[in-house]
């Protein structure tokens, strides 16, 4: 999970609280969440371009990509890298519906409803150092995740009882119990942790602790160099398994953390592709015929964790009160430029896992009821004062000030405390040192493992310490079943229970987009912003 790097303009920030008060004074009726695509953002190409209409690929050239954050490492056990897919291909890839499909692997099947899984690899694949891509390499990589409790993909190895190299191109996984979602673990984004990113065992053993800055995969481009906070260069891998690809000669990745600078760079052509476009950028690019926008809201979104182990949010009255205190029209106008898809559940309408019942049960904007709940809490001896945790950027502070004003209107004395992003993530959030804190998850194609991580007792991203045994049972069943209807029912029921308990305060769907110059073709991406580069090319 990642803290959102806010993207609104300074002018909007300066007017936020005044606009919120003006809207509140005029009155605001509750707004139901609508299906994606109604907010003025271009959602016509969420996962990439139309290859059939883009013409015949032209080989050659260098693609310059702007990233919203510096990469952390290319080591699959560490993750936090949106561009690792240039160097690595994944064993499986999710399609637009969130279903794992073969990629470096030819197939992954189960003969016994999920207790045994047989992974068959493509023949004639080599790593970029010339060593063979085989079953032993897969087992070596999965074992690195399994034996390191701190590894980003360690969670996904928990069901594994043993792994056998059945032959040079076949791995058989024996699980402790049936896990219908096991193939998803091999198709997740690199930055979320996965089991499908396979690095060269020879390179890992050679580089040791330095491997993360000297990666070797079986993807379309091989690593050249990395100048921290400046650029990462990769070049075409001539022995790539997809013959004739990649089309590009090279890619240069540049970290551009300032959103306005990054957006201006793609507008003026200093970069070809911006993989860090958020609400305001997507709004602008959607209206610009000289840019191409690739965006889809997906699941989960932006929200506030409510710490259920600290007062006042250990009391359900206060969780209800803060939920009813937020005016959705003011929220959208001041924080999302009226282009946000506001959220009330972990899934958006149109998703097969979406529960209309859960959305309808989510508390609507009702300041009078919120005031009553706060008064009841105070009368029982509670202190309704709240500290809101935010980042240090101007727009994060503006968001905190908006929340502060909304809560004050119902009798909650709120203060805004800010920290740099590193401290906010590690000390405040992961350390549980908060009452309420702004966060973002997704967008994602598949609800596993994100729902499990966020809402299961002991989940690695369950920072508010939420626990409901009935939710745990439903999420466990969703992971284990191979029946899509049963899985959807599990997630729908879990949403209903979660929305009754209110462990999080929903804000809006996450906005992460790729924004490209018109001559960039063959874009392929996950909703989480990670791209696949083998098919990307540039026209003249």
Structural commentary:
This protein has a 7-stranded mixed sheet with strand order 8-9-10-1-11-18-12. Strands 15-14-16-13-17 form a 5-stranded mixed sheet. Strands 4-5-7-6 form a 4-stranded antiparallel sheet, with helices on one face. The radius of gyration is 23 Å and the shape is globular. It has helices at residues 10-26, 135-147, 154-157, 201-207, 259-268, 279-286, 316-325, 328-335, 356-361, 367-379, 394-408, 421-430, 450-455, 469-480, 484-501; strands spanning 62-67, 92-94, 100-102, 105-109, 116-121, 160-167, 170-175, 221-227, 231-236, 250-255, 273-277, 292-295, 301-306, 386-391, 414-419, 436-441, 504-508, 513-516, 520-521, 524-525, 531-532, 537-538. It has 540 residues and is an alpha+beta fold. The protein contains 15 helices and 22 strands. Helices cover 29% and strands 20% of the residues.
Secondary structure layout plus pairing:
Blueprint: H1 10-26, E1 62-67, E2 92-94, E3 100-102, E4 105-109, E5 116-121, H2 135-147, H3 154-157, E6 160-167, E7 170-175, H4 201-207, E8 221-227, E9 231-236, E10 250-255, H5 259-268, E11 273-277, H6 279-286, E12 292-295, E13 301-306, H7 316-325, H8 328-335, H9 356-361, H10 367-379, E14 386-391, H11 394-408, E15 414-419, H12 421-430, E16 436-441, H13 450-455, H14 469-480, H15 484-501, E17 504-508, E18 513-516, E19 520-521, E20 524-525, E21 531-532, E22 537-538
Parallel strand pairs: 1-10, 1-11, 14-15, 14-16
Antiparallel strand pairs: 2-3, 4-5, 5-7, 6-7, 8-9, 9-10, 11-18, 12-18, 13-16, 13-17, 19-22, 20-21
Helix pairs in contact: 1-8, 1-11, 7-10, 14-15
């Amino acid at each position: 999970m990642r803290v959102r790097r806010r993207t609104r303009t300074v002018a909007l920030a300066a007017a936020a609280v005044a606009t919120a008060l003006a809207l509140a004074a005029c009155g605001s009726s509750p707004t139901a969440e609508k299906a994606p695509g109604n907010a003025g953002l271009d959602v016509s190409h969420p996962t990439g371009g139309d290859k059939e209409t883009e013409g015949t690929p032209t080989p050659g050239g260098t693609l310059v990509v702007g990233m919203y954050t510096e990469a952390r490492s290319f080591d699959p056990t560490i993750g936090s890298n949106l561009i690792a897919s240039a160097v690595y291909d994944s064993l499986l890839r999710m399609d637009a519906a969130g279903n794992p499909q073969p990629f470096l692997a030819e197939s992954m099947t189960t003969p016994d409803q999920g207790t045994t899984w047989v992974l068959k690899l493509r023949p004639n694949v080599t790593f970029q150092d010339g060593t063979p891509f085989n079953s032993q390499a897969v087992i070596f990589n999965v074992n690195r995740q399994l034996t390191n409790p701190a590894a980003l993909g360690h969670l996904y190895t928990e069901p594994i009882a043993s792994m056998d190299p059945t032959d040079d191109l076949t791995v058989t996984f024996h699980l402790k119990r049936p896990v219908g979602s096991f193939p998803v673990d091999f198709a997740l984004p690199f930055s979320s942790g996965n089991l499908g990113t396979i690095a060269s065992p020879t390179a890992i053993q050679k580089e040791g602790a330095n491997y993360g800055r000297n990666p070797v995969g079986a993807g379309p481009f091989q690593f050249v160099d990395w100048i921290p906070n400046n650029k990462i260069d990769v070049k075409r891998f001539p022995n790539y398994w997809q013959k004739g690809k990649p089309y590009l000669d090279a890619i240069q990745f540049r970290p551009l953390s300032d959103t306005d600078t990054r957006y201006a760079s793609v507008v003026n052509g200093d970069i070809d592709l911006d993989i860090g476009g958020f609400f305001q950028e997507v709004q602008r690019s959607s209206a610009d015929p000289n840019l191409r926008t690739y965006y889809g809201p997906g699941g989960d979104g932006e929200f506030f964790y409510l710490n259920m182990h600290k007062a006042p949010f250990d009391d359900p009255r206060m969780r209800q009160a803060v939920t009813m205190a937020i005016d959705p029209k003011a929220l959208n106008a001041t924080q999302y430029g009226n282009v946000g898809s506001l959220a009330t559940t972990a899934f958006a309408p149109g998703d097969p896992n979406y529960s209309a019942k859960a959305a309808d049960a989510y508390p609507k904007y009702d300041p009078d009821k919120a005031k009553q709940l706060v008064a009841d809490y105070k009368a029982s001896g509670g202190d309704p004062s709240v500290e809101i945790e935010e980042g240090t950027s101007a727009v994060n502070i503006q968001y905190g000030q908006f929340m502060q004003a909304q809560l004050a209107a119902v009798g909650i004395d709120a203060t805004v405390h800010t920290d740099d992003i590193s401290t906010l993530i590690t000390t405040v959030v992961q350390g549980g040192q908060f009452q309420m804190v702004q966060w973002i998850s997704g967008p994602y194609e598949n609800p596993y493992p994100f729902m499990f991580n966020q809402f299961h007792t002991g989940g690695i991203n369950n920072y508010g310490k939420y626990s409901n045994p009935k939710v745990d049972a439903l999420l466990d069943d969703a992971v284990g079943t191979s029946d899509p209807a049963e899985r959807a029912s599990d997630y729908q029921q879990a949403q209903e229970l979660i929305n009754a308990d209110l462990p999080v305060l929903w804000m809006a769907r996450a906005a992460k987009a790729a924004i490209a110059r018109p001559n960039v073709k063959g874009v392929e991406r996950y909703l989480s912003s990670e791209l696949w580069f083998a098919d990307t090319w540039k026209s003249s």
